[in-house]
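for the writeup, i need someone to sanity check this before i put it in the appendix. the sequnce is what the collaborator sent (i think, or maybe the updated version? ugh). structure was predicted straight from it, no edits. if anything looks off just tell me and ill rerun, i have time this weekend
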Amino acid sequence: MRAVKNLLVLYTGGTIGMLETPEGLAPAGGFEARMREHFAQMADAPQLHWTLQEMNPLLDSANMQQHNWLAMRDAIVEAVDVAGHDAVLVLHGTDTLAHSAAALSFLLLGLPVPVLLTGSMLPAGAPGSDAWDNLCGALRQFEQGLEDGVQLYFHGQLLHGCRASKLRSEAFDAFAALPRHRDGERATTLPAELGYQHPRQPVNLAVMPVFPGLQAGHLRAVLDSGVQGLLLECYGSGTGPSDDQALLDVLQAARQRGVVLVAISQCPEGSVVFDTYAAGNRLRGAGLVSGGGMTREAALGKLFALLGAGLGAEAAEQWFALDLCGERA
């Protein structure tokens, strides 16, 4: 950890910088001036040197898409490798904050600077807002020193970028890292195509929960839509309707044509351990790869980064099973 001397604040939109419009709160530009004005009025303002860059377009994070993740990745890589910034703070809306933190964790593997994401539940300037506390708290994390890699700061908590989830929609302590079992062997080296300098492409991914009444036709409709990877949210330790041979046949056929199938637990404190039940073993036999104790956000972001790097199904499964940045270990 080292002192940060040249911070980039990457403003993507989100509640933190929203202003009221006739249609309701919406992202607004000019946030750098508002930040500097607020800090000028503080007796103990953060003393970091920083510059702000606005993404275009600014987003309500409910509209976040893969191409926005890639644009953030490109902006961060350029800021570090070209402009010489030694840290990046990303201001982001809360709806998809944990998803973006996880995705960037895998898109920026090996980046030699710390990246921190934060946002707020109420806009800066709103009565009782948490915006300035979160923003100043994040800046003070850089003053104290942060390890390289992607992390999330919210309501006084510093969370691993691949372990955070949004649990509450109406409270300032909206984010937490729930205890989930870690089971992955750490990758000792990474291929060049998984490093932060390697560009990525959009990937056709789908997420589907297992539920009583799930039919083979439901899965077939999703898998036949051209998806390259499916994240299946299973019961408990990785079980599902394993007595439905038609459903298993759909999964097996998809895997045989190159679709990567990943299983995670839909329990907030769950982990996939296929060997626990015969039902889990049958899903593994149909081609599913265990996501262990990864969150939905982490598993989706990892699948996106692996397939987006151009890896084939077998290579993606191999790297998915390994811990790349602390998501499984």
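The chain has two domains: 7-176, 192-320. DSSP finds nine helices and 14 strands in the chain.
thx in advance!!
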